[in-house]
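A reminder before we start the practical. When you read a complex entry, don't treat the lines as separate problems. The point of joint prediction is that each chain is placed relative to the others, so the output describes one connected object in space. Small molecules and nucleic acid strands, if listed, are placed in the same frame. In the example below there are three entries. Take a minute to note the order of the lines before looking further.
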Amino acid sequence: MPKTILEVIDLKKHFIHRRGLLSSFKEHRQSIPAVDGASFYLKENETLGLVGESGCGKTTIGRTILRLEKPTSGKIIFEGKDITNIATGELGQLRSQMQMIFQDLDAALNPKMHVRDILSEAITVHHRISDAEVDRRIGDLLEQVKLKRSKLSSFPHELSGGEKRRVGVARVLSVGAKFIVADEPTSALDVSIQAQVVNLLRDLQKQLGLSYLFISHDLRVVELISHKVAVMYLGKIVEMGLSDRIANKPGHPYTHILWSSLVEKQSRETGQKAKSIQVGRWGVFDFERPTAGCRFAPRCPVYDSKGRPTLCIDPVTEPQLRDIGEAHQVACHFPL
Amino acid sequence: MKQYLQMPGEISEFSELPFWKKADAVDLVYVGYGLLIVALVVVSYILGCFNLLPHDPQEIDLQLMMAAPGTAGRLLGTDFMGRDMLSRLIVGIQAYFLPGLLAILIALCLGTGLGVLAGYRGEKFETGITYFTNLVDSFPRLVLILLVIAAFKPDIYYIMLVVGLTNVPVVASLIKGKIQFLKQKNFIEADIALGLPTRIIILKHILWHHCRSLLIIQATLGMAEAILMETSLSYLGFGVQEPTPSWGNMVQAGANYFMQGKFWPSTAPALAILFTILGFHLLGDGLNHILEGKRSA
Amino acid sequence: MTTVPILKIEDLRTYFYSRSKQAFIRSVDGVSLEIAKGETLGVVGESGSGKTITALSILGLISARPGVISGRIGFQSDRIQKNLLQDLGDFVNLTARDGKIMEVTKDVAGWERNAERIMSQVRGKEIAMTFQNPKSSFSPFTSVGKQITEAIRLHTPKKTELEVKECAITWLDRVKIDSPRLRFDNYPYGLSGGMCQRAMIAMALASEPSFLIADEPTTGLDATIQSKIVDLLMELKSELGITAMLISHDISVISRLSDRVAVMYGGTVFEYGPAKDILSTGFESKHPYTSALLASIPSTKNIKEKGYLQVIEGDVLDTINIPEGCRFYGRCNRVTESIRERCARHEPDLRETESGHKMRCWLYFD
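Here is the predicted structure of the whole assembly.
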């Protein structure tokens, strides 16, 4: 029975919107609830896909879990240990177990360092090892990520997008990561290279028993690679379940709209339009004056079609994630 | 008509040209000249320390007053008291060399420290340090120096201390800016995520790899400024006093004879000042362009 | 196609010189395309394929050196007819060795003057372009509305302030921007990515051009917004009958909007023909690159079986090091023994294999 490697309970991360000179010292500040109460768990060797539009908080969740941001409230339990509030100094060894692949291909690559230096630095972060051993480990890493040896003496700007991505993955593996937050790992890459990276990540999961939090806006790839999928909207998880249920029998109206906007489903090829819901004129969610209750209501066609019931926008009855069977949870009063 | 030629054969896999091919010829000339000046200054300083001078800088020879260069073995002639110009010029370097280094050291160390604090820790530190540096920046430097001279004594080291302190804001804001730039590129975050200890992130990744050229350039400009400051003050009578030679007071002393048509006693040290400061400035400018790809205004 | 094409590109070459590598980056290396009136040509390709540079070459927007060095771009609209690269040969001298251009001498300033003379009548007025990164393609200092009115004033006979403003607002409404009268005064930073893209389309079409080039109109936008932009473009296409060249690396967008498709790789066109054939999964005679590209996108079958994606081995061609022979040779998985020699040594030319379908592949030439 694979054990749970990560548990997140009611995690909140609010950003303070700075206004004025002395705002760091003032009590009264505007806060932006980037992540507003997310809960889920992840087992060993499992991939949880996290989807949503830009600004919904998916990257922030990833960074908060890795303690790159301090959580405002909630709990993060990694490998049985509560890491929500421990000092960054104490994170120590634990840090090497949970790593991040950044959306920006250049993020982890210091442009003034050779690939060899980048990798050997990562290998020697926690252990003092002999040069020969470092060489051997580098060789292993290169094989694992399928990177040519000749690239060791290159600088990052001499590498192609796919190669940069592989070096980033190698760096993360070299510290011994067990849990990886992959933030848009394929976005900046060409289609044919994306396929290579996706296959690579799956291979590594099989070989090394890794767990992924796979954040992406590419719904097809998420569907392919994830066991479970969580859909986020404006800081809240609105639906969570097994990946094929989410894709084919979504419960939340937002999920349905997301998946039906996959242009392919409406291509001339298949000849039929997927059962598409008409989305009305778009209201925009303003963090400065948040609407009460369900955040999706201003854009929700179901809300509209049901005659705008106050149930949806009353803050007291804000929809929470409810189990609707088969490990499928939806935060909606009128699930599809 | 522009010509573009590709040679047949293998194309190099690497895109790093050695810097002498990448840089503009102008910058190479600047840097070459600057390095020459630096070498001359350092060598002269050492000679001065060990008193390895062609003649005694204080030796008065009334027979040889204001001789032209080359007379009686005085390579650069003599001043209005018959003292050997070359030896005096060499010794004059003592007046600004160490003090200048002091100024640079203060500016760079304090500036880097504050810059790193402001950039890396951000938030309150940044606000506080920015206010502080703005404050220091708004002080007129010369007024501060004169205050120090009046309050204490016209010691060149005290003066250079002030010069160094007043340069801290510039260095601090450059370093802070660089760190904020790196933060945007997710560098620092990726390093933290990897588990690299803070001191390595700051010392190696930020300072060594990204800031060293910046600091070298600030050092050259700082030295140029120190020289200017020292010579100006000595010219005005506030710095080094006669008979100890300083390029500034040499110009001052020789000025009386300028009107009489005897140009050399004040022109020689003035030219020395000019060429030396120019050397440091051009070195800084050239390095700035080669290493950082910017032209200063 | 019996009608005269609006745009006919013949053997276009745009090279850039890399000082650090002392070699040419052959971004566009012999591209030939045709677009008929009323037709939408989709140009698909990955990074380095040269599709954006082709578009910029058409409009004379290449500033890096040496830039466009050879070719002919015939443009024929209702109002004018000319070769956009007229007299290019007078300003450029090429020397080739072993069939590869190794030396270029170009009077850059002279060509720029000449090009300006030709293009000033064409840019915006006859050929309009929308760019990737809509937010940064607008000037951040002026309101969006003002920028559109500026375009209208320049390129259409409308003159009075009122006329021009009304025209701009009509177009903003046509591209489905809500509250167009209010949005008219918005600055680019105040608009979302999707809205900026629509505004740019409005600006391009308000000048009433004969031909529109859209470079990656959906890239960088959220999934839901992408499909809305595609819907918009479909509507505009049927309403206005615009002739367009649509550049994208997103095959689903191209398949929905294009009549014909050109698949580009490494600076050349590999395949060219009707979209419904080339991009469908059924069609048999496809270029190996095209079929491999389509196969590497997760399909419903892949996803259901959670299988591995079919991958094209190796890296996308870097247009500095162009190999002998076919540009796809190292990565192609359909090479047979009988043609291996040819694939490795000789680059195939673009030949018509079926009516209206051109290919650059030895597999289909016998």
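Discuss with your neighbour: The first strand of chain A starts at residue 4 and ends at 17. What might explain this?
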